[in-house]
Design goal:
46% helix, homotetramer
Amino acid sequence: MAEISLRRAKSIIRATLAEGREMDLKPLSVIVLDAGGHVKAFEREDGASPGRFAIAHGKAYGAVMLGMSGGAQMARAEQQAYFMAAVNGVFGGQVIPVPGGILVKDKKGDVIGAVGITGDTSDNDAIAGMAGIESVGLTGDA
Amino acid sequence: MAEISLRRAKSIIRATLAEGREMDLKPLSVIVLDAGGHVKAFEREDGASPGRFAIAHGKAYGAVMLGMSGGAQMARAEQQAYFMAAVNGVFGGQVIPVPGGILVKDKKGDVIGAVGITGDTSDNDAIAGMAGIESVGLTGDA
Amino acid sequence: MAEISLRRAKSIIRATLAEGREMDLKPLSVIVLDAGGHVKAFEREDGASPGRFAIAHGKAYGAVMLGMSGGAQMARAEQQAYFMAAVNGVFGGQVIPVPGGILVKDKKGDVIGAVGITGDTSDNDAIAGMAGIESVGLTGDA
Amino acid sequence: MAEISLRRAKSIIRATLAEGREMDLKPLSVIVLDAGGHVKAFEREDGASPGRFAIAHGKAYGAVMLGMSGGAQMARAEQQAYFMAAVNGVFGGQVIPVPGGILVKDKKGDVIGAVGITGDTSDNDAIAGMAGIESVGLTGDA
């Protein structure tokens, strides 16, 4: 499968943060994971709280591991809370099922990684991330 | 950013416990964490139960790592329970999202640490802690 | 059994830190646990690294739980490393078996708690702690 | 104490990776933590194995939490293996005590964060990281 390169990962992060500034959001933190769920790149803006790495990671990690966007996970959590709680259990508490966890797909529709954004409201996090992903010609599933 | 000194941390604890005596609260336990979420000082009053360190720590730790006061975390937990449960997961179960976890800010508005108070009702814990923080000229966000 | 009061715990810490200044040691961190191994009080001097709470706790906790001073634990670790490693395992990795973990005993010889000191060399940590304990009329087993 | 900015963190990483290319090292992964041990930025070069985030993090995290460079931790591990193993325990297995974990200090000598590098030999990792840190006018303690 196509790998997400470090160059592309950094471009996604740069564009996401630029969108955040454009939207006048609170300081954002953005992570990019590869298709195996492993950290490729991360940046936490000045002024973001110390725990934002963990939250960004949780959003992206759940998306990759389940093949479900943050929005889809949240819908599931609201319908069947105990299921998402159990899913979180088998993944060692590492999943955060809310918007801001975005699957990244290439032209063929294959998942090549995920982006996790946190810092503002979940919905704004997702908007900024989608802009970042689309800016490099990839497709996001938020 | 300004560090919270040991002297200031102890003054906050002393004043918080004094307020607790003034309000005739149950025995209190008070922790002060620095801006990175690391323990600076702690005192558990005689008669307080053995587990109070963990609870005081959980209140303050969640506040620092998320940049959200205990009151704000509780509001979020009531709106979106699975989100706060997931957040607790990525922080290894160390977050207790209720009043009594207070962000401490300096004159410029920067977070320099957090105070966690437990022992009476959460609301009374928070009142005592705010008195402690204000007594040293700092601002609390409860 | 006699409880170690908050007043006594704070006096031990104060005297330990004063001894550290007297001996011109690096910034110290001092914890006092009660006879059940639960945190009573803690202070981390300015300039001490963020992880010092965990190390001070580990020294005192091993002492209380095993009824063995840090010095005795170290001797055991050097003779039978796998045993102390296993002991650490059953206590969730919370034991640090080196000098600086001091059992505190009252006049009757009963253990009423433990003190953990860290920041300088283990031997100097223990010397400062013994001074702190003896200054309040208690007996230390280092 | 001075915060390490995202801009500076990225510059350190860029310069470290450039040094790695100059030295013809294997693909490197570089993390920057702030003074509280929290992730500020990270990059994993293409071709680096999936687990490199954890190793880079472990090197930098141990350095910050203990206030000891990777080289100093390794020396301690070689003299007193059970001590470093126990230290790893109290930090949840998150400490990797070898060269490549470098404390970052500002002009006043205060620790403002740490850099963790992994991918080639530990010694080469450390050389690349020192070049990265010095390129932004900061001091590294490897």
